[in-house]
Amino acid sequence: MDMELIQQIRGKARSLLEEGTVEGVIGYERAGDGVTSRPLFAYDSSAAERLIFDDTCTHNLVKYLLGKRGKKMAVMVKPCDSRAINLLLNERQIDRDKVFIIGVGCPGVVETEWNHKSETLQARCRSCLLTKPLVYDVLLGRELARKAEEETYSDILEAEAESVVSRREFWREQFSRCIRCYACRQVCPGCYCPVCFAEQLEPLWVGIRIAPEENTLWQTIRTFHLAGRCIGCNECERVCPVDIPLSLLNRKLEKDVKELFAFQAGLDPEEPPPFATFRKEEMPELGE
Amino acid sequence: MGLESPFIPYVATLKMSTQLTPDIKLLSVELKDPDTRAGFDYKPGQFALLSAFGEGEAPFGIVSLPGQGDGLEFAVRRIGTVTRALQELEPGDILGVRGPFGNYFPLEDYAGGNIIVIGGGIGMAPLRPVINRILQQRDDYQQLLIINGARTPQDLVFQPEFPTWRAAPRTRLELTVDRGDEHWKGRVALVPDVVKELAPSPNNAIAIICGPPIMIRFTLSVLKNLGFKDNQIVTTLEAKMKCGLGKCARCNIGDKYVCQDGPVFTLEQVSQFLEQP
Amino acid sequence: MNLFISKDDLIRWLELLLRERIIIAPIRVQGQTMFQPISKVEEIMFDFDNTALSSKGWFLPPTETLFSVRRDDGQIKLMPATVERDAIIFGIRPCDARGIALMDGPFLQVPSDTLYQERRNRTTIIGLACRQAQPECFCTSMGSAPDDPSHVDILLTEVKDGYIVQVVTEKGKALLPKGWAKYKRKMPTPPQLKTVPTKGIVSAIREFFNDPYWERLADRCLHCNICAYVCPTCYCFDVRDYPDKGKVERVRSWESCQSPGFSLTAGGYDPRTTKGERLRQRFYHKLLYFPERFQEVACVGCGRCGKACPVNIDIREVISDLHQLAEAKSGS
Predict the structure, then answer these.
(1) Under 8 Å CB-to-CB from C106, ≥6 apart: which residues?
(2) DSSP 8-state secondary structure symbol assigned to residue C289
(3) What are the tens digits of pLDDT across the range A83-118?
(4) CB-based contact A32 C275, cutoff 8 Å
(5) Assigned domain for B5 exists
């Protein structure tokens, strides 16, 4: 653990709280297992003393800003998480003036599960080219010069080479395990519809059956709702209790959107995602 | 095989569907099987789950009294998919009935007392059998004060019965609306304010109240100011419900299961979770 | 009286049983251990920590049809779903077996849930005692034990060369062939577990209905349904109709009190609108409402919820916190 960085984080949180700049600071603390970390909402300076930061801090805390709309909050943001800030700014879901962003330099986070920390860097970190958050009010820790490799989508290319039948079979098996716990949705910073289509009754989009057909429909629509919006934090895959490889779906769409529109979500707060824009020249057959 | 699933409803026929207000219909329902029909006994306050096959099932208070009128009656307000399907049924159509479920208003215990019935909107539905049972046994009770409120005059339910209620001995019917119209000459006031104005005495009295949560909350505080104790205030709770059997846990509010412990509660039993701001 | 069976004989016995019955057992699926119907005995995992999901799904499936509606010539027929075959659920840990016993409370109370009851009647439970405890385990604090035979029909305990067979019920006895040797040696010592201070929790939690603790804890809660769906005792469900080509099925599926629409009525009334109220409901139901009705805390100490929670909300920590709150209150 980088104690110097942690002291800086605690100090900043304390002053933000004591000066009344924010009502609360959303950061990380050590989890009950003593090994991993968990989100912490610090509302006073004594709670701020529990803040930590290390390579187990995988959670994308930006999601929590959606539940604190209207309140002045500070949030700890890794470089990757900052793309979620941009996404939500672009989609007018958060108010920049209400959010104090504590950017932290990140050495990459490792694969963890409860009570266990591995030495393996998460796959998304291995291809992360961001050395510091894209947006912040204060930057703590070092800006990192890391050796990351550009995303090559090798697993996606492999999957694309498979036949339709074998892909369908693969996903049918994967989705048959889905228990519709909606953890993938609940953790996603891009999932914030007041009423999710999965719960809508009129019209009814997807039934309550926890069965391959409905699960496939649920996961397919969920993925498409994130096309050009997924910022790649991969929290959905991490939280899935039945280990469905959701990053394959999300990154397939990320790759397609990159190729078709030269766009990646969350890099720029001003540029709207392709599916939130309409240009006439894209649909010439519509005429005038 | 051989076990009778408690999820399987009685098959019933819609006998009549009457528009009570712009969004509420009174459904008269007859159970198909004569033996089941004869054995279907219930008390004011109990409810049943109605099925519109293909849309689903939802709970409704039984608003009729056994042996009076046309079979089982339910007041259905159009608020979702099941209620819409039930409203679209035509006489002769099939529906499902499960019940009766839940407890009831212990009206025998109130004999000799004054009764104040306070209902708002569709909240009058479960109170209708209370009023009609008291009128049936009018000598058993002292004063009956009925306060019936709705958003607009058209939204007042059970209007055809108002003359009967008014004409009954020692019975007073007070109507109120949130918004009047050109024909309305009655009160324009919120239910809690009417209760405050009429200021019924808590002496030897029971207040039975049903309506939207906000109305209940403000009426409760008025009643308490008037001196009503928590055991003199009785209400019937609405809750999401899927089984009616104490299993699905959807109607669990606080430590109560509305389908089994309720729907009728004294304020004493439910104040912890009703009075929260 | 305990018997002994070699691993080879156990496999032969299971092969015989599989000819006549469905066997549900822990098998390896995509790197996870799951209870699923097996087609071959070789699929069974005999050595595993615990399954990712509990065994409740066999008795209360994630989704099942309650009855179907058929219309013929203006007549309507309601056809109840039935359980077709006898089954064996093999390899249940004592904690999960206790979970089933707890679910019996709501599901077998009159009027009983007939589908559940039929599955219960037609399923024989063969448990597997735990020879090792996992870090998430705390069953001994919840009225069970790694070698608890109370809620199974037969309990197997792995020893060198084979298994000790404890025949617990008549139903279990009926499955047994004749001629197995008696096991005369001492029973192995069960593993030791960390303890959780569950004593007095039912009365402790009562005092904190309106405590800000729940809103604070809910701050980090994602309100997903993982905890409820991995839990052996969470049993809330949803019911809906599925119309399909003139046929209608009434279907029930798992549902959780953490879902946004769980307690929202069609009319728009919701008794639990805040995240804190929803999270509190889960713990109140487990630690107060269920014990009030069925005399037992609705937790078996399997530790799955704490292990699977993406934000480390852990019932053990909640129990300790509540005791601390209670101490602070009595001290002040």
Answers:
(1) B246, B247, B249, C235, C293, C294
(2) I
(3) 999 999 999 999 999 999 999 999 899 999 999 999
(4) no
(5) no
Chain B residue nearest residue C293, CA to CA: B255
The pLDDT, as a whole number, for residue B277 is 40
Tell me if A146 is assigned to some domain: no
Whether residue B76 is found in the same domain as residue B135 = no
Mean pLDDT per 10-residue interval, chain B, length 277 residues = 82 96 97 93 97 96 87 95 96 96 96 97 96 96 97 96 96 96 95 97 97 92 96 92 92 89 92 63
My answer on whether A127 and A164 are in the same domain is no
Dist CA B130 CA A91 (whole Å): 53
C124-158, pLDDT tens digit by residue? 999 999 999 999 999 999 999 999 999 999 999 99
Whether chain A has a CB inside 8 Å of the CB on B81: the answer is yes
Domain total of chain A: 2
Q: State the burial class of residue B163 (Cβ atoms within 10 Å of its Cβ: 0-12, 13-18, 19+).
A: exposed
C330: enclosing H helix or E strand? helix C315-331
Closest chain B C-alpha to C84 CA, distance in angstroms? 9
Report the SS3 class of residue B251: coil
Alpha-carbon distances, residue B124 vs B61, B75, B100, B190 (angstroms): 10, 9, 19, 15
Task: Enumerate the H helices of C21-122 as residue ranges.
Answer: 56-59, 94-108, 114-122
Are B250 and C67 within 8 A, CB to CB?
no
Chain B residues near residue A201 by CB distance under 8 angstroms: 80-81
Range of the domain at C118: 2-59+82-182
Short-list C86, C80, C47, C55, CA closest to C65: C80
Chain C positions touching A39 (Cβ under 8 A) are 219-220, 311
Contact state of B56 with C239 under an 8 Å Cβ cutoff: yes
Spatial distance between the Cα atoms of C82 and B98, rounded to a whole number of angstroms? 20
Q: Are C59 and C101 in contact (CB under 8 A)?
A: no
| pLDDT for the residue A200 | 87
- Please answer whether residues A112 and A36 qualify as being in contact, where contact means their C-beta atoms are separated by less than 8 angstroms: yes
Touching B: which chains, 3+ CB pairs < 8 A? A, C
| Residues of chain B contacting residue C80, judged by C-beta atoms under 8 Å apart | 5, 7-8
- For residue C56, give both structure tokens: 């409740």
A77 and A54 part of one domain: yes
Token pair, residue C204, equals 């402790």
Among B101, B136, B164, the domain boundary falls at: B101
Last residue of a domain, which of A109, A140, A171? A140
Gyration radius of chain C's alpha carbons: 22
Choose among A85, A45, A43: nearest CA to A65: A85
Residue C196 forms part of a structural domain: no
Domain presence at residue B162: yes
Q: If you measure CA to CA, which chain C residue comes closest to B99?
A: C111
Show the tokens assigned to C329.
Answer: 């209150």
Hey, of C36, C49, C136, C222, which one would you mutate to test binding to chain A, going by the most A CBs within 10 A of its CB? C222
Interchain pair C229, A241: CB under 8 A = yes
Q: Does B261 lie in the same domain as B149?
A: yes
Per DSSP, the three-state class of B36 is helix
Domain assignment present for A186: yes
Residue B57: what pLDDT? Answer: 96
Strand intervals (E) in chain B: 10-21, 24-31, 47-52, 56-61, 72-77, 94-101, 114-120, 144-150, 171-177, 187-188, 205-210, 233-236, 252-253, 256-257, 264-266
Cβ–Cβ contact A202 with B under 8 A: yes
Could you tell me if residue C194 is inside a domain? no
The two beta strands, A99-104 and A138-140, are parallel
Mutate to test the interface with C, among A50, A181, A202 (most CBs of C within 10 A): A181
Q: Is B38 contained in some domain?
A: yes
Pairing of strands B10-21, B94-101: antiparallel
Average pLDDT over residues A49-68: 97
